[in-house]
Amino acid sequence: MRKIIAVAMLYLNKVVGSRSTIVMSVIGILMAGLFPFIPFLGVPFTPITESALMSQIRLIGINATREIPKNVLLGVVFVYTQAPALVTLFSSLAALSYISYSVGEDRLTRAFELLLAAPVSDLEILYGILLAGLSYSMIIWMISASIFVMGSSFAIMYYLGSIPSPPWSYQVQLYVLSPLMVFLVCVLSISIAIFMPKIVRGPSIQLGTTNPFTLISLLPLLIYVMLMSTPGIDMGALATYAAFACAICLSALTLLCHKLFDRRRLISV
What we know:
The protein has helices at residues 2-12, 19-34, 47-55, 70-81, 83-109, 112-116, 122-160, 168-195, 212-217, 219-228, 235-260, 263-268. It has 269 residues and is mainly α. The radius of gyration is 20 Å and the shape is elongated. The two termini are 27 Å apart.
């Protein structure tokens, strides 16, 4: 256990030397707090998103004696239905930036081979890297989720005058599915960086379709966002099934890494 923690600290210390990782983390945390205000300012949604939000109005119990502007109504529904996925997205991007800079760069520059030559077992290296990635991801997610809750509560109170009780699907999305999804993205990106380092094109995360590392790592989240945007979808059932799917995939992927991690094979990759 001591060696696992030592490996984890080795990679966590890389955060200090990565300006891009720090910047991405700060941007993610700020966006999590500021994004809930955007719908209330009248920024239009896409027709598909607006249709999906209108179909979810019944989930929000709003008691008001005055007529509620459409942008405020859609803003409240957005916060309680789709916004938690943005917390997941921004936290995941910060985690991807960290994995790309630390594990990805080590694999690309062959610095990883120095760790493989150290007097630690294969599993101590693997679980040390996983511990570092999951710890960093959890810290970023906790800060982002806390700022999101405070920011969204303030926005709803300011524009609506009261805070409706959030539906249970919101609780599942934000407090169960979101951290599980961030963990899944983290473990998936670590798996890619370790076993398929050529997919990681550089030490800095590239937010675009030109980087397959980003797209593959975010694939579970992108699938969920597509399903979530379907008009009339049952958000509670979707979030529950997605949380179970994330837990199963996370366990299966961790076991697969456990089975495939072999320093002799990794040196030749």
